[in-house]
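We store chain and fold; thus.
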Amino acid sequence: MEAAVRQGLAEVADREIRAELSAYDGKPVLWAARLSAHGHDALESGAASPTPAAHPGFPAAGEQAIGLRPAQMDALRVYLSLGTRLRLPPADGLIERVRTAYFDRPGNRWRLCLNTDQIESVAYGFYLRSLTGSDLEANTFRRDHGIVYRVDASSGKPSPAVQPAGPVADRPQ
């Protein structure tokens, strides 16, 4: 209780309140405490937050296990934060998958299981990032997972392209 009081999450009852509680209970109340407004909010916040997976789990049918570096996860969160402002919004369910992703410390990767639409949406987010900032996230995603957004020469529009995973072929070795 002392730690909760030091952090401002609880308040210890003073003599007056203990006297009122003693009268109500019919016996002496030696100490009492209650949640502070901050303590209440901390409990509400904890209850509202999704519980991350305890382990990466196994992909369900039609899903693939994905590992994202911390910089990629940061870029993906920026893309997801744009949500409804985008003309092509993130795939259904992607926001929840990112919110409940598991961070694998030894591998330094965020682990999550995504379906094909969600994987393409991640690639699209990294494509947008490459247009306005860094190619690193898109290139790493292509190398690790074999999908990248590129402009289709026949239509002139960007679309997902499956490419073999591994080092970028057009990059000098």
The longest strand covers residues 109-115. DSSP finds seven helices and seven strands in the chain.
